[in-house]
């Protein structure tokens, strides 16, 4: 038979063992914590075309497309805003489709054709979307504007190609270029200055000219 002292000892042992397990789980061993990380990044040669010019560059495989274009090709039009794919300031057009370039690795775009704001038009020879943004005052501080314009160009191409949005009523018909369609499709591009209505006007004008 076990007496009270035995039961008390068992309870103490149980509590001590549970505490030791909790500490071991929460605190990794010193040898694991001190394991040195590799000091050399893994490099890879990447080839793609940006704004019609072929490039081949050696990159750390962790480099995003946004950083590759901004830091290695020195095309700084696309902006690093949130760096989490939530603001759209980094929007580029890759093989005809708009993407958040901060969320994709450069090595994933071997052989792709990439267009940034610098490739759409230049001073004195603006792309129609750039000219419409100027005409309708579709920007204020201008930080989000490169992404807005690239996204706007791609949005009109999406509608023309018959790609529906979440609010397209008839999935078998080409969506109309309405203010609601534009707002839905452009919802991933944030303008903290609030130039949304002017952006809709600019895109509507360009769509009308393309029709």
Automatic annotation (TrEMBL):
InterPro entries with a match to the protein in the record: 2Fe-2S-bd, 2Fe-2S-bd_dom_sf, 2Fe-2S_ferredoxin-like_sf, 2Fe-2S_ferredoxin-type, 2Fe2S_fd_BS, Aldehyde_Oxdr_Iron-Sulfur, Beta-grasp_dom_sf, TAT_signal
GO molecular function, one term: carboxylate reductase activity
Keywords of this entry: Iron, Metal-binding, Oxidoreductase
Keyword Oxidoreductase in record: yes
Gene3D superfamilies registered for this protein in UniProt: 3.10.20.30, [2Fe-2S]-binding domain (1.10.150.120)
Pfam families noted in UniProt: Fer2 (PF00111), Fer2_2 (PF01799)
PROSITE patterns referenced in this protein's UniProt entry, alphabetically: 2FE2S_FER_1, 2FE2S_FER_2, TAT
Protein name as catalogued: Aldehyde dehydrogenase iron-sulfur subunit PaoA
Gene: paoA
């Amino acid at each position: 038979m076990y007496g009270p002292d035995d039961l008390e000892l068992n309870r103490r042992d149980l509590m001590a063992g549970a505490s030791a397990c909790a500490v071991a789980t929460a605190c990794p061993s010193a040898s694991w914590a001190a394991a040195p990380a590799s000091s050399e990044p893994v490099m890879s040669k990447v080839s793609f075309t940006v704004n019609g010019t072929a490039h081949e560059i050696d990159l750390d495989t962790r480099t995003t497309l946004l950083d590759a274009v901004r830091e290695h090709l020195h095309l700084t039009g696309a902006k690093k805003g949130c760096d989490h794919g939530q603001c759209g300031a980094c929007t580029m057009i890759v093989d005809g489709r708009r993407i958040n370039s901060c969320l994709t690795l450069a090595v994933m775009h071997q052989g792709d054709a990439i267009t940034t704001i610098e490739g759409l038009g230049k001073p004195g020879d603006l792309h129609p979307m750039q000219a419409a943004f100027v005409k309708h005052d579709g920007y204020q501080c201008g930080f989000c504007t490169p992404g807005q314009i690239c996204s706007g160009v791609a949005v009109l191409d999406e509608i023309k190609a018959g790609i529906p949005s979440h609010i397209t009523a008839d999935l078998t018909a080409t969506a109309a270029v309405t203010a609601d369609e534009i707002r839905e499709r452009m919802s991933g591009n944030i303008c903290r200055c609030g130039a949304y209505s002017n952006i809709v006007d600019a895109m509507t004008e360009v769509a009308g000219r393309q029709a």
